[in-house]
Amino acid sequence: MKVLVTGSAGQLGQDFCDVLRRQGVDFLAPDCDQMNFLQPESIREGIHAAAPQWVVNCAAYTQVDKAEQDREQAFMVNRDAARVLAESAQAVDAAVLHVSTDFVFSGQQRDQPYLETDTTGPLSVYGQSKQEGEAEVLKACPDSIVLRTAWLYGARGQNFVKTMLRLARERDELRVVADQIGTPTWTRDLADAMWQLMQKKQTGLFHYCNEGQASWHEFACAIVEDARALGYALKVEHVIPITTSEYPTPARRPAYSVLSREKIQALLDKPIPHWRQSLGLMLKELQQCPDC
């Protein structure tokens, strides 16, 4: 098997490339100079030259708030480049795994996790661009997996966990939104699930996140609690819950974006870990890599 991985410098891309290394898989991980998502011909040339069996797209425009003012570039990366990537993969008989997001949902559903079949309704430019990217990928390359996920964090790259740890070292008090509910998801767990889906030759739309759910405030409290138990030196004394209206942002976030894991769990070789379990493992990993 030969795999081409886009977005390999990101937190998910790095963990997925680690999975491929452990499996002894031949893979290419072009950087943004070698495959520029703002230049369609660069994508076509890269995929045709590589002639892989799989194209795994971990690249995305993820600056949710900036996208509100940078709509054109967000759609160029998340929709248009995704379409060209899928068309190019189809032309060389490659399958595609495309990573998407919980932001395709409106968040108005509160009684149960979102199924793959539930109606989407993004609230932001970022969510709209990812939703349209999903549709383009599935249309251009029938042998595609679109995998939605949520609230990603890992030992490498920038994310909520690392931001909270930095602020907890600097401040006595943190104020964190408590009325947005989702599921923190460790990139290492997601990367393993991606590999399993590829091995099982699946196609179509799937959801993956860790088990359980939390508000951002609950997530922040868990980060502080678990990090302190592991010996992290933290200054913070209080983590204060606030409302979304007290922390306004340019882009609207879904108030509830928990994803159902029922469909993908039936295919995986082991139970999906709970987010608290995975958070502890990630914090231990981060201790071993202070420069991550």
How would you sum up this structure, described in words?
The protein has 292 residues and is of the alpha/beta class. It has a domain of 199 residues: 3-Layer(aba) Sandwich (Rossmann fold), CATH 3.40.50. It contains nine helices and twelve strands. The chain has a six-stranded parallel beta sheet, sandwiched between helices. Helix 1 links the parallel strand 1 and strand 2. Helix 2 packs parallel to helix 3 and helix 3 runs parallel beside helix 4. The two termini are 30 Å apart.
Brief write-up:
The protein is of the alpha/beta class. The protein has nine helices and twelve strands.
Topology (SSEs and partners):
Blueprint: E1 2-6, H1 11-22, E2 26-28, H2 40-50, E3 54-57, H3 71-91, E4 95-101, H4 125-140, E5 144-149, E6 152-153, H5 160-170, E7 173-177, E8 181-182, E9 185-186, H6 187-199, E10 204-207, E11 214-215, H7 216-229, E12 238-242, H8 262-265, H9 275-288
Helix pairs in contact: 1-6, 2-3, 3-4, 5-7, 7-9
Main structural class: alpha/beta
State the helical fraction: 25-40%
The CATH homologous superfamily of the domain at 2-158 and 185-210 and 257-272: NAD(P)-binding Rossmann-like Domain
N-to-C series of helices and strands: EHEHEHEHEEHEEEHEEHEHH
Q: Percent of residues in beta strands?
A: 15-25%
What strand line-up does the widest sheet have? 2-1-3-4-5-10
CATH names the topology of the domain at 2-158 and 185-210 and 257-272 as: Rossmann fold
Which architecture of the domain at 2-158 and 185-210 and 257-272 does the CATH hierarchy give at level 2? 3-Layer(aba) Sandwich
Tell me about the biggest sheet?
A: 6 strands, parallel
